[in-house]
Amino acid sequence: MPKGYAGRILHVDLTNGKLEIEQPSEAFYRKYMGGSAMGTYYALRDIPKGADPLGPENALILTLGPVTGLPISGNSRVTATARSPLTDTIGDSQAGGFWPAECKAAGFDGIVIKGKSPKPVYLWLHDGEAELRDAAHLWGKVTGEAEAQIRAEVNEPKAEVLQIGPAGEKLVRFACLINMCTRANGRTGMGAVMGSKNLKAVAVRGHQRPEAADPDKLRELARWGVENVEVRMGAMRKYGTANTVGGNQSAGGLPTRNFTSGSFDEYEKISGPTMLNTILKERDTCFGCAIRCKRVVEIKDGPFQVDPLYGGPEYETLASLGSYCGVSDLAAVSLGNQICNMYGMDTISAGGTVAWAMECYEKGALTKADTGGIDLRFGNAAAMVQMLEWMGKREGFGDLLAEGSARAATEIGKGTEKYLVTCHKQEFPAHMPRVKRTLGLIYAVNPFGADHMSHEHDPNYEESYEGHRNGLSSLGLADPQPPRSLNAEKVRFALTTQWAYSCLDTVNVCDFVWGPTWQLYSMNQLVELIRAATGWSVSLYELIKLGERRLNMLRAYNAREGIDRKDDVPPQRIFEPLEGGLSDSWAMDRAELAQAFDTYYEMAGWDVATGTPGRAKLAELGVEWVADIVGL
Amino acid sequence: MPKGYAGRILHVDLTNGKLEIEQPSEAFYRKYMGGSAMGTYYALRDIPKGADPLGPENALILTLGPVTGLPISGNSRVTATARSPLTDTIGDSQAGGFWPAECKAAGFDGIVIKGKSPKPVYLWLHDGEAELRDAAHLWGKVTGEAEAQIRAEVNEPKAEVLQIGPAGEKLVRFACLINMCTRANGRTGMGAVMGSKNLKAVAVRGHQRPEAADPDKLRELARWGVENVEVRMGAMRKYGTANTVGGNQSAGGLPTRNFTSGSFDEYEKISGPTMLNTILKERDTCFGCAIRCKRVVEIKDGPFQVDPLYGGPEYETLASLGSYCGVSDLAAVSLGNQICNMYGMDTISAGGTVAWAMECYEKGALTKADTGGIDLRFGNAAAMVQMLEWMGKREGFGDLLAEGSARAATEIGKGTEKYLVTCHKQEFPAHMPRVKRTLGLIYAVNPFGADHMSHEHDPNYEESYEGHRNGLSSLGLADPQPPRSLNAEKVRFALTTQWAYSCLDTVNVCDFVWGPTWQLYSMNQLVELIRAATGWSVSLYELIKLGERRLNMLRAYNAREGIDRKDDVPPQRIFEPLEGGLSDSWAMDRAELAQAFDTYYEMAGWDVATGTPGRAKLAELGVEWVADIVGL
């Protein structure tokens, strides 16, 4: 393991304020490594069957990884794991920033938080010490204010604060965790779990930076990254993830007006170049990263003014608050982003929920009587902003929307379910199954609902595939397939890259920096990274099996809750034709997708009827104990 | 691919004498690589369902690999693939020597031989050219004579000759292919297949040595091997595989008197040190190998005189002709080895068959009336030698034994089946399931019958496990298990290392030199080797999946012939207690083994009822076409 690698897991029982430190064995670290697999290990072990996601019996687990805090791009990631109040499945979400590296330097690899504090508290970790502090005076504060106040209180201007905003306090089901007021563990409502525990924040500060087992090799890898970042990641550096707006529009896959279209006429107004040439104030970075993909925007005039403290919108946000809602006003989208970061809400689910409500409104299922007088039609920028603010405060119509679109549809009825664009009750991210067909499968089978960072999206044209082939070959994936097919080879592509991304979220590195295709570093280089960091003779085989192990553990968690194949259901929308643009009339084929599901479960080694791993499969992954816990 | 890498497959139709050269794509090479996977590809494609193993419709496929002929240890291997006349399953066997490297230099990566020549012929490959030559005058000659004559005829003293002896000509069911008169593709009766085609030999000579894509990296790896060979492989260098006699005796696992005991009182007389100190003439090597594990012995006096032309006995032979038969006369064993090499017979099946007959004789099921007057009791060295010679010539009682023990037992009846020590009709190699329990599983499930080089045997004491752990960790196998257990973790160990060895036999490197545990080089170094040789960015994930692909293709081949789980049956003997020594009274447990079978098939992703991969599993391995061919 890295020198100075903490090897320490903090267990917090908020009900009685008890803090305990566990030091797992090196074998444990090698088997579960960190991130999502480690989080799921504790979720399986410590969350009882049938736990209420918002009850004290749920556990919120924050985990780092074996390379967190080392001086190389993409190292600083934190995974949050808990049973999700949005999806009811296991929840899982990653974020970057400086918090993860700082938490490692403070002496902790992971934090397992159980129970419920009788009053609001925050956790303060510093140089190996851990303490709970009163947070009554912070409750209700937006993230920027709370962060400043905590730093002042602990007298550490460099303390990093991972926290919830008012949305998490009020149990908005897609509330996020946020650090630096800009980096969100966005998906699956981890902020509501933290809020349900009366925990406002986890502040960290430490001075023990980890040191790699092989510092020379690590330096060599880091140098390679710096030397290659411009040629491999130039567009990401220049435009950030916003660059993807144009790419998806060109492919007919920019989700528009609640996924009724893949083409947004006004896409240029919310594109990377427009942001660069108008409101961009500066580029921001996570700890140690050479890419600097994060955006900081500032708007001082007009109806939608934006504070650079809250960063700037990512691609997902430009789409979810922009094209999903038919909104092309970049300032409004940026302010919407700020509201989400202030209140602590996932921009994807927030925007997806607003877009769904807009369609309901346009189709007459909602009226101004429902919306508090707001004319909630597509393209109404101010309405979008208003809805976000009401959601964050759970005020007015926002209180219902704060439940997420799936629960809101159940509440409203009137056929509004047919406008849902969700899997496992989680709103789709900004990538279109009708354009990249494996998404139609993976959004449904992914154990925590629709997620865009759980596998490699289908390469949607031959040139990009060629560029990816070298990396994919190391996974045995080198045969190009016809566009928009969902044959067995495409299912294999989806499953294998799902294992790869599952590994990335367990090693806990940034999926933009490390990965099988377009990323700065390849999967083979990831092997080198972990060898350099830990001194272990890891192989890519070991790492992909680690990813498969984590994926199976997640499915097993769900199986214990009775959640299985019957719940892996894509929404009606993906079978409807898209309107306009390149993708005009494209729709997914039900029979082809049904076959793909069968193939997927069988390829995964799961029972085809239930989509659940059996005891032998879990044993094949070295986790037979999971079968005992889950009762398989 | 390596510069000068031939990329050429020779297709031979012996019925009409037609020779064709195929040049497969690089993608084909990367998917099937060489060796056994490539051989099985052609077997599935070119051998029709229901083929008679000894009929012209069978194909005999000889394949090299991506590193064959490169200047590094363990590179020079040839795999033979055909439907087996011994096991009725797909047959598969590897050999080393100089032939493989020379075949590569002659311009061929593989040879697919179909049909049946109207008269005896041999194939002569030289510098990219291929021709069939008359072999009528060679038919009936022992290997040493035929080799000398062929070299003279082609006027190439450095030509290498892979051939059959009289046993192959006479369709002895365990006849082997042999090159250098000492290197045998021993198992599964590939020599009988070649004999059935009237093909005496494949002689090769060429001058185009392959060059690695990264010669510096290859040199570095080769140098590492030379520098580490003494410390890692010292005992193998000094004693050859004969060193294993003492090791297995100490562990209670030296198969003795037809596997009724694991302890041979006189083991020292046939041990590595005894050979070294008495009859060893010199050490021999395969092309480019630093280990020099091969033995050459010479005996000029006494009743059992031995010609160094035929090398010396390996561990397997010392056991099969020695302890299996209760014979401790090293000279007799060495002469038996010579007879097998002269006539071209697998020493394991030959010795196993004699040992079985000896038990039948001792137990009264055979008498001198059956054996041609020979007193065929355990320990009768001269009788063992006589039986081998008769088998090779199919004379007298040897004609029946030439069918192998399983068919002979069926012929004889009288309860002799209960003394069989076979799986899929193939005699056990010299490793004991009752001592290393995963062998009880793998001998039965291996697609071509009992084989000792298809997985990593259970480490049988804690120290050796510790020494192996670093290599096993790269396969995710690091948890020691209780000795003689066959729990799910042990099954996982067996299956995962089976994939690893399957990869080794497909890359076609020597399992003594490259492998997951005790070998000179690790699996991670194998990745480096293939990268250096080919320039491909291979990963261990890709290689292990390659091994899994090959194993699934073999099982699929058998499924087409109706051979499946019902045929994966271990013999009664492994459930009987061993007699004497450390392993006294050890027996395998039927219930535990039955559970291990279920676990194994499920872990492998196969139908548990049939032990056969389905379409989705084959597609997951990138070979969905196999499902079409096999009808799955």
How is this structure best summarized?
The first copy, chain A, is α+β, with helices and mostly antiparallel strands and 632 residues long. Chain A is built from 24 helices and 18 strands.
Shape verdict of chain A? globular
**Oligomer class:** homodimer
**Greatest interface (CB-CB under 8 A), with counts per chain:** A-B, 44 and 44 residues
List the strand order in the largest sheet of chain A: 2-1-6-3-4-5
Written overview of the protein:
The structure is a homodimer of 632-residue chains. Chain A has 632 residues and is an alpha+beta fold. The first copy, chain A, is 41% helix and 12% strand. Chain A has a six-stranded mixed β-sheet. Chain A has a six-stranded mixed β-sheet with strand order 8-7-12-9-10-11. Chain A has a two-stranded antiparallel ribbon with strand order 13-14. In chain A, strand 15 and strand 16 (426-427) form a beta hairpin. In chain A, helix 10 (315-322) runs parallel beside helix 12, helix 11 (330-343) runs parallel beside helix 14 (381-393) and helix 19 (488-507) packs across helix 21. Chain A is globular and about 60 Å long. The A-B interface holds A 27, 30-31, 470-471, 473-476, 478-479, 488-489, 491-492, 495, 522-524, 527, 536-546, 598-599, 602-603, 605, 614-617, 619-620, 622, 624 and B 27, 30-31, 470-471, 473-476, 478-479, 488-489, 491-492, 495, 522-524, 527, 536-546, 598-599, 602-603, 605, 614-617, 619-620, 622, 624.
